[in-house]
């Protein structure tokens, strides 16, 4: 069974065992309850998100009661089983399903392959490995650039000045 990274414990918060959690998913319910602490294995921790801060959430981990215990969790990645995800709604897709898709332009010319999806703060970007070789490049993941997504390919309108 495949697991998805949904969060990461950054550090301890305060003296009562709370932690700062970097949330990597839109649905906060995915981080509520038992989450896995590795891509494989059965070790879990029980997390309750308390409140949002500037760029993270404050969380409470069951049986962690002081700062020293909380510090031992620093850097812990939090995973869920992919099978627990609800099916995407109409006009929705999980970004994980974009990775590996063939990228073509509106004239069906081969551009490359989607190798990742990133967001550096200004919006989501598709990371494209060009068919012609060379360094990968980013294309904004917007309605203007993503014309259609099919099961095996994504049709893109490459913005002016950006070439593969």
Give the secondary structure arrangement, pairings included:
Layout: E1 3-13, E2 18-23, E3 33-36, E4 44-52, E5 57-61, H1 67-71, E6 77-81, E7 102-105, E8 110-119, E9 124-130, E10 137-140, E11 146-149, E12 153-156
Parallel strand pairs: 7-12
Antiparallel strand pairs: 1-2, 1-6, 2-5, 3-4, 4-5, 7-8, 8-9, 9-10, 11-12
Task: Explain what this protein looks like in three dimensions.
It is a single chain. The protein is mainly beta. It has 2 domains: 3-84, Beta Barrel (Elongation Factor Tu (Ef-tu), domain 3), CATH 2.40.30; 95-156, PRC-barrel domain (SH3 type barrels). The protein has 1 helix and 12 strands. It has one helix spanning 67-71, and strands at residues 3-13, 18-23, 33-36, 44-52, 57-61, 77-81, 102-105, 110-119, 124-130, 137-140, 146-149, 153-156. The strands form 2 sheets. It has a 6-stranded antiparallel beta sheet. The chain has a 6-stranded mixed beta sheet with strand order 10-9-8-7-12-11, with no helix packed on it. 20% of the residues are buried. The mean pLDDT is 90.
Task: List the defining traits of the structure above.
six-stranded antiparallel beta sheet; Elongation Factor Tu (Ef-tu), domain 3; 45% strand; 12 strands; six-stranded mixed beta sheet; SH3 type barrels; 164 residues; mainly beta
